TrEMBL record:
The lineage of its organism: Bacteria, Bacillati, Bacillota, Bacilli, Bacillales. Signal peptide: none annotated. It holds the Pfam family Abhydrolase_1. The keyword Magnesium does not apply. Belongs to the peptidase S33 family. InterPro entries: AB_hydrolase_1, AB_hydrolase_fold, AB_hydrolase_sf, Peptidase_S33. This is Proline iminopeptidase. The keyword RNA-binding does not apply. It comes from Oceanobacillus indicireducens. Keywords: Hydrolase.
Length: 283
């Protein structure tokens, strides 16, 4: 059952090859790709659960994230995550998947789709970053512009502390989180999610060195794509048009007003309506 008679959402937990997976609903499947890199799928909860009245929602923690087991060799890469998603698709016996990718998850969605275009039905990207490392770099630059000199100094010390184990990632997020939302009140309804600093660092370095799907975009020209970007996201609608939309002309950009980077948290009703209409439509 998706919803019991008290209106409570009940998720079914699955463990597959050390991956922490939760599903809910019985309809056409939507696979959610969380951000970070290194975060976890609880970011989406409970905000998108009303979609389970129509669709089967599939959430999972990427390798080494949340409750999923770490990699055997302690190494993490973008293409490892593409392979993990393909293994998950096969395990769930889905011929094609609908993808809902958020932030870093939007990059993973495009990497997967350009690797396995025949396995993708539709793609919804939110808090998108771009089609190459330029978007990731621009995100960092735009975020830095928002920081005070005092915050920059504190962050520099904390980031060094995270690397040598003397500081926690939570101390870093305590400074940064407010810049991901339109209003700080939104932080009260965001799940307290963890971030694996090793995953974050290794995949972050991989993105900077190797993320570029531009040459493969022709392979997804027949896949419907919608991009939802907060008007006050760190990467504004204008920037994401330059970093992504202009490269994928058949994609549709929807700007979410009074919203920052975390669209799912700040505007869940609007995001659910967009997702429902998009994944329910026929093309």
């Amino acid at each position: 059952m998706t919803v019991d008679n008290k209106g409570t959402f009940n998720l079914t937990n699955i463990n597959f090859q050390g991956l922490n997976i939760n599903t809910i609903g019985e309809g056409e499947a939507i696979v959610f790709l969380h951000g970070g890199p290194g975060s976890e799928h609880r970011f989406f909860l409970p905000h998108v659960l009303p979609l389970s009245r129509k669709f089967k929602l599939v959430f999972y923690d990427q390798r080494g994230c949340g409750k999923s087991a770490p990699s055997i060799d302690g190494q993490y890469s973008m293409m490892d995550e593409v392979c993990t998603l393909e293994l998950l698709r096969k395990e769930l016996k889905l011929e094609k998947i609908n993808i809902f990718g958020e932030s870093w998850g939007s990059m993973l969605a495009l990497l997967y789709a350009t690797t396995y275009p025949e396995r993708v039905n539709k793609i919804l990207l939110t808090a998108a970053i771009g089609v190459s490392a330029e978007g990731f770099k621009t995100f960092g630059k735009e975020l830095e512009k928002k920081l005070s000199e005092s915050e920059k100094s504190k962050l520099s010390k904390l980031e060094e502390g995270v690397r040598n184990g003397e500081s926690s990632i939570d101390e870093v997020l305590a400074i940064l989180d407010k810049y991901y939302v339109y209003t700080e009140d939104s932080l009260k309804v965001k799940a307290k999610t963890s971030i694996n600093p090793t995953v974050n660092q290794q995949i972050g370095e991989d993105i900077l060195g190797h993320y570029d799907v531009i040459s493969k975009l022709d392979s997804i020209k027949d896949i419907p794509i919608v991009v939802t970007q907060g008007c006050d996201d760190i990467l504004t609608s204008k920037l994401i048009k330059e970093l992504l939309i202009d490269y994928i002309p058949h994609s549709k950009l929807i700007t979410i007003r009074n919203c920052g980077h975390w669209t799912v948290v700040e505007k869940p009703d609007e995001m659910n309506e967009i997702a429902h209409d998009f994944f329910n439509s026929t093309f």
